[in-house]
Design goal:
heterodimer; A: about 230 residues; alpha+beta; Cyclophilin; 2 domains; five-stranded mixed β-sheet; three-stranded antiparallel β-sheet; 13 strands; B: about 280 residues; mainly beta; Jelly Rolls; seven-stranded mixed barrel; six-stranded antiparallel β-sheet; 3 helices; 20 strands; about 30% strand; elongated
Chain lengths: ~230, ~280
């Protein structure tokens, strides 16, 4: 595992991604390694039986020092629809009250801003998103729910995110995204990559039902914008 | 086909694992005791990646719809073929219609059943290992039929073997994890001298222990975890992630178990005790 300074920073994340790119291009037998980035760390796992830790470490350090810092990594901004109907946003009223906002303000603050994907883990396709505005920071629920529905959009402390499957969970649920973030039937089951950005936009209940059907038959393609910064 | 007449407590199909999607949050899965699974496969000249049946605590009752050869390994679960007792680590022939059943668990916790050429459940994201919702099922269910190939004649290279059964060991070796240094001297001493009891919270995702180690307030950012990663919660609880364990976590990772240690632990159940031992190759 390689660790960068302990802070949530896009610069660090992009440095990790640039390193991954160089590693894939230059490291001998790079395809035999799995690379798992998250926030300020990168974990490298190999299934090769015979590696010497110290020589592998030296080779990895060489990749880091000779990496191309200017490398352009393909990253996208994904625009995902969310229905903030009270039927899905089961904690919406309580959360708005706790934050001293009305529901409309809460939705306005949650939507139309980019969140950076700092990691994918916990569940297949669960994105750790950074960039939540301070006004939406709210404590986790005091007791977690045994089942949070797939697609639920939640708030917890400095994080927001989408539950990619039914799961126990303690986040405050404010809406539901009809587009599956993780689909095991696709060759690339998760269209989002670490380093991408996510933006939510509010949709009506009718649009939710439509998008859900479109997603099920595979004709809904979330809007994506290439990032060049 | 092989028919599941009775599924048992928790019976799944597992191969060597689902790789290359950890960065998307997909656990590796695969057999918990990879050593036992590999032995059963190798006795049938199967590729080590072939899927086997992993049987936990209480065994199923199965009926072969085709002739094949099979081998049982891992925990001792009093198996019988058409009510005649049989042994683990023995290559046997099953005829069409034969019934394989399991009885009392006498040692270990997980038994592996390999059949010639493996269990052919659907490959999802590169693996047959059951893991919901990547596969439709978490475990096999009563009445289901699983595809296996017919094999009418086969001459095994080895008929029977006396295997070193890992489940008789109770020491598990571990390397220091990335956050090992947050442990104080007392905690390190306890960690490598006391025995730890497996809690009732133990499954394919994680094993917890009854005895707490040390409370802490260490804050870290979410980072990758692996099967065999030993996490320390703020309340001092030890959690060891296993085959279906999450790929990232926010608790300090104080130890990392060796592969052999994971296989040893996979054969333990609640109430059993283990002792951690620092791996001799630790840096």
């Amino acid at each position: 595992m390689i660790q960068w300074p302990l802070k949530v920073s896009e610069d660090i994340l992009y440095d990790i991604l640039a390193f991954i790119e160089s590693f894939k291009n230059t490291f001998p037998e790079a395809e035999k390694w799995e690379l798992i980035p998250a926030y300020n760390s990168l974990t490298l796992v190999t299934l090769s039986k015979s590696i010497n830790f110290l020589s592998a470490k030296a080779a990895i350090e060489k990749v880091y020092t000779s990496r191309n810092k200017e490398i352009k990594i393909k990253r996208y901004l994904w625009k995902l629809p969310v229905c903030y109907d009270l039927e899905f946003g089961i904690d919406l009223e309580e959360s708005a009250e706790a934050l001293g906002l009305d529901i409309k303000d809460l939705v306005a603050k949650h939507t139309n801003r980019p969140y950076t994907v700092y990691g994918i883990g916990f569940l297949p396709g669960f994105m750790y998103l950074g960039g939540l505005p301070k006004e939406l920071e709210i404590n986790r629920r005091s007791s977690p729910r045994a089942k949070v529905l797939k697609g639920s959009v939640g708030l917890a402390a400095q994080q927001t995110g989408v539950y990619p499957q039914d799961s126990p969970g303690g986040w405050n649920i404010i809406g539901n995204c009809p587009i599956p973030i993780f689909n095991p039937n696709k060759e690339e089951p998760c269209f989002v990559n670490v380093g991408d950005r996510i933006e939510f936009y509010s949709i009506s209940r009718a649009a939710y039902d439509l998008h859900k059907i479109e997603a099920e038959v595979g004709i809904f393609k979330p809007e994506k914008v290439a990032l060049n910064d | 086909m092989i028919k599941v007449i009775r599924s048992g407590f928790f019976t799944t199909i597992q191969d060597s694992g689902r790789f290359d999607l950890r960065h998307k949050g997909v656990p590796i899965s695969g057999a918990m005791d990879l050593y036992s699974a590999a032995i059963a496969n190798s006795m049938l000249d199967n590729h080590k990646k072939y899927a086997v049946m992993e049987i936990t605590m209480t065994g199923p009752k199965l009926q072969f719809s085709v002739a094949t050869y099979f081998c049982i390994s891992g925990a001792e679960m009093s198996p019988s073929l058409n009510t005649k007792p049989i042994n683990n680590y023995e290559v046997l022939k099953a005829n069409k219609g034969d019934i394989l059943s399991f009885g009392k668990l006498t040692s270990g916790f997980r038994t592996y059943l390999a059949v010639k050429d493996g269990f052919n459940t659907e490959i999802k994201l590169g693996s047959r290992s059951f893991f919901k919702p990547i596969t439709p099922l978490n475990c096999v269910i009563d009445g289901m039929e699983i595809d296996i190939s017919e094999c009418k004649s086969y001459t095994p290279k080895i008929l029977e073997m006396k295997s070193e059964s890992l489940h008789h060991f109770d020491e598990i070796s571990a390397y220091p994890g990335p956050e090992y240094d947050l442990l104080n001297t007392n905690a390190i001493k306890s960690l490598f001298s006391k025995k730890f009891t497996i809690a009732k919270e133990n499954n394919r995702m994680a094993y917890q222990f009854v005895e707490p180690l040390m409370e802490h307030k260490h804050k870290m950012l979410t980072s990758a975890t692996l099967p065999g990663t030993v996490q320390l919660t703020p309340a001092g609880k030890l959690i060891i992630l296993m085959s279906d364990g999450q790929t990232t976590g926010g608790y300090p990772r104080i130890l990392q178990l060796s592969k052999r240690a994971i296989a040893i632990l996979a054969q333990k159940r609640s109430g059993d005790t283990i002792a951690f031992k620092k791996h001799p190759y630790s840096l």
